[in-house]
Fold this sequence. Notes:
- By secondary structure, the protein is of the alpha/beta class.
- Helices cover 26% and strands 26% of the residues.
Amino acid sequence: MSINKNLAIVIMAAGKGTRMKSDLPKVLAPLCGKPMLEYALSSARALDPKKIIVVVGHGRDMVKEQFSDHDISFATQEPQLGTAHAVAQATGYLEGFDGDVVILSGDVPLIKPETIKRMLETHKNSNAAITVLTLKLDDAASYGRVIRQGDTITAIVEAKDATPEQLEVKEINSGIYVFKNSFLLPSLKRVDNSNAQGEYYLTDLVNMAFDEGLVVNCVLAEDAKEALGINTADDLENIERIMKTTS
């Protein structure tokens, strides 16, 4: 398979994983015999991108050492100030790149390359600035809510910033995106942290794109399990069970 010169992938992998009850960086937690990050990397490699950038932070030297034999670049996020701040650390590798950027999370290991390919196809066909992978959950808990006017996505609101009405929304953000790099780079510079968590949210770019009259598209995950994230030791056990029953 030839390299896709119009595709770059950024994997966010800087989290400490305080609730994992482990001294290891979160993305090095063993999952079915491999470090957790290996799964997102495997999906990224299957797309043959021009470049893969892993944003590291907590335990970054351990992560770099573990993956030193891989053809990837590393960017450092220190301190960790949110998802937009994480992606902003990778912009040095994206300057002058005229293509699409896929954003993955190192703690979302079940995402399939086929799903990302579906997102890229939708993104290209609709000439979107952003394409978001969404899913529908009866119990959306702490996930960001996808806000629409009709079929149009107007915003993604983090749970801690959502109104009671918005918290009733069942369509949620997976945290997996495709961006036009020509929109991503300048927009990251405009994100502020005036929200409940005092963080720089990548989701703010959805509001920006809508305000600018740009296309924001979505792909609904066919299997909600693909977007499950790992934040606790219980999450890790749950996903390990899923992997063992589907392998």
